[in-house]
Amino acid sequence: MQRSTLDLWVGIFVMAGIGALLVLAMKVGNMTGSGSGETYALSANFDNIGGLKPRAPVKSAGVVVGRVSGISFDNEKFNARVTMNIEKTYKFPKDTSASILTSGLLGEQYVGLEGGGDTVNLNTGDKIKQTQSAVVLEKLIGQFLYSKAAEGGDKK
What we know:
Blueprint: H1 2-28, E1 39-46, E2 57-60, E3 63-74, E4 79-87, E5 97-102, E6 109-114, E7 126-128, E8 130-132, H2 137-153
């Protein structure tokens, strides 16, 4: 009887551990649901999206206000179109700007929204016109090295 009680408690502990790992995996993979569920769609075009992925957070002032729902290539403008689902509880003016930012030095990328001063708000299907592309670390390092090489070549 004592052995079966011990086995039962070990089984419960193992199941709780597996459940905790599943919850952690869902959080890391951005698979958890967000808020009320009612959203409206916005889109924005970027010259470079870096490592942005679908389901990446959309943040404003550090608060998650939505998620990236899709990323596609615009064959006419030759840039990336990012569609976002924003929770209906958050309203943004028409002159809102969108930037692709990074959490920390090498963290995940997300879309940052910065509201403007317009009195008219964005609605479903509207496009954010003011955008700033992702900063690509390799490009910055290349520009730095090129400027240092050009600087060194002038000292003859």
